[in-house]
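tokens incoming
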């Protein structure tokens, strides 16, 4: 197997991950995960790698391209794409138990494998936002 493609979404952020045999390098938009900023985002993305374990992660290289949304939405989209890529890789490989990995991801956070369907509510007339209304003054 040469490589696999997976994707992840969160709000308006879309991440595409390419997983291939390698030495455990993970890059987000061509930036190595070790120096990706801010730190909170880096740790959120790393959750998928920690749950998978070093045996699986050290055998593959993962390149993620993510665009759209804010930095936390991008992190969640990248995390979903990486988790799906590692699960696909484990299913193809005979060395790893894909069912155990899938159960681990779902027990920790279901949105690692399944997209979060929540979206922004559209603004309506008569107010500055979706629910807020303009204030009235009677004097």
């Amino acid at each position: 197997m040469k490589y696999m493609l997976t994707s992840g979404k969160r709000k308006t952020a879309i991440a595409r991950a390419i997983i291939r045999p390698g030495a455990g390098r993970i890059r987000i938009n061509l930036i190595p995960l070790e120096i990706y900023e801010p730190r909170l985002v880096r740790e959120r993305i790393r959750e998928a790698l920690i749950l998978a374990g070093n045996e699986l992660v050290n055998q593959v290289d993962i390149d993620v391209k993510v665009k759209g949304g804010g930095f936390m939405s991008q992190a969640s989209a990248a995390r979903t794409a990486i988790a799906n890529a590692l699960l696909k890789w484990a299913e193809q490989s005979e060395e790893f138990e894909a069912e155990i990995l899938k159960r681990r991801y779902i027990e920790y956070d279901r949105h690692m494998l399944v997209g979060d369907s929540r979206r922004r509510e559209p603004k309506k007339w008569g107010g500055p936002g979706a629910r807020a209304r303009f204030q009235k003054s009677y004097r």
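note: Residues 2 and 35 are 27 Å apart (CA to CA).
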